[in-house]
Amino acid sequence: MNIQTGIEPILREIEAREDEIVALTQDLIRFPTINPPGEAYRPCAEFFGARLARRGMKVEYVRAEGAPGDSDKYPRINVIARYEGSRPGPCVHFNGHLDVVQTGAGWTVDPFGGLVRDGKVYGRGACDMKGGIAAAVVAVEAMIDSGIELPGAIEISGTVDEESGGYGGVAYLAERGWFSKPRVDHVIIPEPLNVDRVCIGHRGVWWAEIETQGRQAHGSMPFLGDSAIRHMSAVLEKFEHQLYPALAARHSDMPVVPAGARQSTMNINSIHGGEAEHFEGLPSPCVADSCRIVIDRRFLIEEDLASVQGEMKALLDQLAGERSGFRYKMRDLFSVQPSMADRNGPVASATASAVRRILGRDAEIVCSPGTYDQKHVDRIGHLKECIAYGPGVLDLAHQPDEWVGIKDMVASAKVMAVATMDLLSRG
Ligand SMILES: [Zn+2]
Q: How do residues 99-143 score in pLDDT, each as one tens digit?
């Protein structure tokens, strides 16, 4: 059978397997794979691997020994399954993270129950991203079951720790060649970016702590000391009048959604100054000798990390020249490089045309405001051919009563099948 003419029966088969997609989503939700600390990783990976092994896929488990958080109690277990086609050709890899964030407050349903109601499956991870993983699995199973002679290879991986940076998951595997040519050619990550969007990348991240330093004195004679909090207020003034307007003026060609994130942004995550918090009773009168903020700077593909850091340092150095006694320390906490695939490259264009075929409308090409595992495929695996495409609704990720739409899962499974067949047939 020819893979172009063979697609229609596969699409009908995916349609007929709607209940299977739902059941698999429920099964995955029922593993409470909360990260941190990394609960239930092993049973979830083994369930996932056993399912794919039944289709004749070669299944391998890779524990990220020594990765952050890895221990015998909380092993970082990743699972990779590969289906080898009947002749040489490209490899299409579906990667999903099996971990979920903590439940938090506000749930009206059991977060690990997998409730089905009104065409939706509910639970922590339903949207981000167990529904997307279930869609990819059923799409691949339908292709394998069709008996079509597929060239190349199809892989599916269930990885861990995406929610905490991916170091025990995709980064660990990428360092060992699992996300590089010649093993893999195209990667599709079914993260929740909406069923009709193809996500080609994400902005960069820089987290840092900035501390202003002062000198302690009695609070009734503040002129004898030097307030680190007042120095920090000067920093915040500079942000308001100088940095924020500069960031807002820095527009990107990255099609980031929502549009408010189509520029450089910075959040101040926290501020602490003076006396430590959480004590009983009344405070004592002291001039603050230290004030700290943690910043979360999101930067664009048009910027680079060194210039982002340099901009902050220049601002603080400028203050040191303007304010007497101004002293600061800046400490890097974390950074991620931005990543963007070619929107006209094979994986993005094949997925976009599959969206058009299945949904009857043009796919929106977007970038994510936050980051996901694409950074590791790109920067460590040196594979630019990586996108995110999945059925979940972006805004629902990490929220209470998270859900994924059943019709969207079925549609996205069809899109994934069409895109895969297209990529494999291009040779
Ligand atoms: Zn996710």
A: 999 999 999 999 999 999 999 999 999 999 999 999 999 999 999
Query: Is residue 99 among the annotated active site residues?
Result: yes
Q: Which of 70, 99, 373, 402 is catalytic?
A: 99
- Residues with beta carbon < 5 A to ion ligand 1? 128-129, 191
The secondary structure of residue 286, as a DSSP letter, is B
Overall pTM > 0.90: yes
Q: Is 162 a catalytic residue?
A: yes
Q: What is the CATH number of domain 7-202+338-426?
A: 3.40.630.10
State residue 426's pLDDT score. Answer: 87
The domain locations on the chain are 7-202+338-426, 204-336
CA of 41 to the centre of ligand 1 (A): 16
Q: Ligand 1 centroid vs 268 CA: distance in angstroms?
A: 23
Q: What pLDDT score does 277 carry?
A: 83
> Which residue intervals of 30-160 are DSSP H helices?
41-53, 131-145
Distance from the alpha carbon of residue 121 to the mean position of ligand 1, in angstroms? 17
Q: How many CB atoms lie within 10 A of CB 86?
A: 10
Segments in the chain below pLDDT 50: none
| Torsion angle defined by CA atoms of residues 179, 180, 182 and 183, in that order, rounded to the nearest 10 degrees | -10
Q: Where are the alpha helices (DSSP H) in 74-202?
A: 131-145, 170-175
Top-tier CATH class for 204-336: alpha beta
Domain 7-202+338-426 and domain 204-336 have a common topology: no
Q: Each residue of 30-58: pLDDT tens digit?
A: 999 999 999 999 999 999 999 999 999 99
How far is 375 from 36, CA to CA, in rounded Å? 21
Give 288 Cα–ligand 1 centroid separation in angstroms.
40
